[in-house]
Design goal:
Blueprint: H1 3-58, H2 61-71, H3 76-104, H4 109-137, H5 142-164, H6 173-193, H7 205-240, H8 242-256, H9 260-279, H10 281-318, H11 325-351, H12 355-404, H13 412-436, H14 442-459, H15 465-474
Length: about 475
C-alpha cells in the first residue's frame, strides 16, 4: 500500500464524513423546526436508546474483521460468513431485548413504535458495518465514502418529503431506514463485485472463537462509549420527559457537529504514535505535544465563539421555541474542549500498549456519568445533564493526562502555556464579538472574530510555521 493510496483513502473518507455531517446537521435543523421540542425529544430518544444496544450486535467483531482481513485477506470469506451468521442471532436477541426493555419502562405507544423502527435501523447498520469492514481490511475506502454521502442524501430528500407533507412522527423514521437500507444493499453487493469476497450464512465455531477473543477489548470500549454517549438522553427522557431531551439534544448538535475533526486527526496520528513508541520516544513526545497544541488552538476559539453567540445561534437555527437550549449550549461548549483533547490522549494510550488502561478509564467515567446523572437530572433536568457531561469529560482528560505522563515526559509548563495563550486570544476575541454583534451581521462578526483570534495568537507566539507544517504532514501519514 503506497503513501499515495493511503492519502487518497484518507481523503475519500474525510471528505465523505464532512459532506455527511453537513447534510445531517441541516436535516436536524429542519426536523427541529418542523416538529417542535417534544416530538424532537421522542425522535432523538428512540435513536439514543437503540444506539446503546447496537454494540451488543456487533460486539467488536467488525473491528476484529478489519484487523484480521488486513493480515490475511484470503481468509476474509470465512471470517465474514461466520460474523454475519453470528450477528443474525445477536441481532434478533438484541431486538427482542429492546422491545422488552422499552415496554417495561412504560412509554406511550408512539415512543414504543419509534423505538421499534429505530431497532430495525440498528440491525441494518450492524450488518453494513461488517461489509465495510472488509473494504477497510482491504484498504479500499472509496466505495464506503460514496455510500456515506449517497445514503445521507437519501435520508435528507425522503425526510424533506415527510416533513413537507406533514406526515406523522412515526414516518420520520422511514427516511433513516431508507438510507440504512441503501447502505446495506450497496455494501453487500460491492463486497462481492469489487473484492470478490463470497459469503454465506454458516459459521465455523473455531473461527468464531478466534474472532470473539480478538473482539473482546474492542467490545468493552465500544459498550462503555455507547452507554456513556447516550445514557444522558435516555435518563432525561425517563426522568424528565420528551421536552427535556429536545432542549438537550438541540444544544448538543451545535458544537458536536465538529467532532469528526479530532476523530479524523486522531486516526491520522495513531499509527505514528504506535511506531514512535517502539522506535523513537523523542518523536513520540514531539508528535503528542504538537497534536495537543493544534487541537487546542482549533477548539478553544470555537468554544468561546459559541459561548458569545449562543443567544443568537440557537434562535436563528432552531427558532424561539428552543430558547431554553441556550444555557445548555453555554455549558456544553466548555465540554467540547475536553472532548477534542481526549482524542489524541486516547490515541496515545491505545498506540502505546495502554488499551486496557484506556478501557478502564472510559468504564470508570461511564459509571460516574450514570451516577451523577441520576443525582442531578431529577433536580436540574437538561442543565444538570450538561454539567455532568462537562465534569465527566474534564475528569477523563485529567486522568488520561496523568497516565500519559507515565508514557512520555511531556512538559506541563508548555501545556499550561498553550492553554494560557489560546484562552487569552479567545477572551480578547470574545470581547470584540460581544461588542460587534450588537450592530453587525453575525457572519461578518464571526469572520472578524476569527481574524482577531489568529492575530492575537500570532502576537503572543501561540503557533509557528513548524506547527502548520506538522499539521499538513500528520494528515497525510499512515
Amino acid at each position: 500500500m503506497t503513501k499515495q493510496t493511503i492519502a487518497k483513502n484518507t481523503t475519500y473518507l474525510t471528505l465523505a464524513y464532512i459532506g455527511q455531517k453537513i447534510l445531517a446537521f441541516v436535516y436536524f435543523v429542519l426536523i427541529a423546526r418542523f416538529i417542535g421540542v417534544e416530538d424532537l425529544g421522542k425522535y432523538t430518544f428512540a435513536l439514543s436508546f437503540t444506539t446503546m444496544f447496537a454494540v451488543f450486535i456487533d460486539f467488536g467483531l467488525s473491528s476484529a474483521l478489519i484487523r484480521e482481513s488486513a493480515k490475511s485477506f484470503d481468509k476474509t470469506s470465512k471470517y465474514l460468513s461466520s460474523i454475519l451468521t453470528s450477528k443474525s442471532i445477536l441481532a434478533i436477541l438484541s431486538y427482542l431485548v429492546v422491545i422488552l426493555v422499552i415496554n417495561l419502562m412504560g412509554y406511550p405507544p408512539i415512543t414504543k413504535n419509534l423505538v421499534y423502527l429505530s431497532g430495525l435501523l440498528m440491525m441494518l447498520d450492524s450488518f453494513t458495518l461488517s461489509f465495510w469492514g472488509v473494504f477497510r481490511g482491504g484498504q479500499n475506502l472509496k466505495y464506503e465514502a460514496f455510500s456515506i454521502v449517497i445514503s445521507q442524501v437519501v435520508v435528507v430528500l425522503s425526510g424533506a418529503y415527510v416533513l413537507l407533507t406533514h406526515q406523522s412522527l412515526m414516518f420520520l423514521m422511514l427516511p433513516l431506514l431508507a438510507g440504512g437500507l441503501f447502505n446495506f444493499v450497496y455494501s453487500s453487493i460491492m463486497v462481492r463485485r469489487k473484492l470478490n469476497v463470497r459469503y454465506c450464512w454458516k459459521f465455523d465455531p473455531e473461527i468464531l472463537k478466534f474472532l470473539f477473543k480478538i473482539a473482546l477489548p474492542f467490545a468493552l470500549i465500544a459498550i462503555f462509549s455507547r452507554i456513556y454517549g447516550n445514557i444522558d438522553s435516555v435518563l432525561l427522557s425517563y426522568l424528565k420527559g420528551d421536552a427535556a431531551v429536545g432542549f438537550y439534544q438541540t444544544a448538543m448538535k451545535v458544537p458536536f457537529a465538529l467532532q469528526f475533526i479530532p476523530s479524523a486527526f486522531a486516526a491520522a496520528i495513531f499509527p505514528a504514535f504506535s511506531y514512535y513508541f517502539v522506535h523513537d520516544k523523542a518523536k513520540l513526545k514531539f508528535s503528542f505535544d504538537k497534536a495537543m497544541l493544534l487541537l487546542t488552538i482549533f477548539v478553544v476559539p470555537i468554544s468561546f465563539g459559541l459561548l458569545s453567540l449562543s443567544d443568537e445561534v440557537i434562535p436563528m437555527l432552531f427558532g424561539q421555541q428552543f430558547i431554553n437550549s441556550v444555557l445548555t449550549l453555554k455549558i456544553l461548549v466548555f465540554g467540547l474542549i475536553f472532548v477534542f483533547l481526549n482524542f489524541p490522549l486516547g490515541a496515545l494510550l491505545n498506540g502505546c500498549d495502554k488499551q486496557v488502561t484506556n478501557t478502564k478509564l472510559v468504564g470508570l467515567v461511564m459509571a460516574l456519568n450514570i451516577i451523577l446523572n441520576l443525582i442531578f437530572i431529577p433536580q436540574y433536568s437538561y442543565i444538570g445533564a450538561a454539567a455532568v457531561f462537562l465534569v465527566c469529560h474534564a475528569l477523563l482528560f485529567l486522568i488520561s493526562l496523568f497516565v500519559a505522563r507515565k508514557i512520555i515526559p511531556y512538559s506541563r509548563r508548555n501545556l499550561i502555556l498553550v492553554f494560557a495563550k489560546t484562552i487569552l486570544s479567545a477572551v480578547i476575541m470574545t470581547i470584540a464579538v460581544l461588542y460587534l454583534k450588537q450592530s453587525m451581521n453575525l457572519v461578518l462578526v464571526m469572520v472578524i472574530g476569527a481574524i482577531i483570534y489568529i492575530g492575537v495568537l500570532y502576537l503572543v507566539k501561540g503557533f509557528s510555521r513548524q506547527d502548520m507544517t506538522y499539521l499538513k504532514q500528520s494528515m497525510l501519514r499512515k
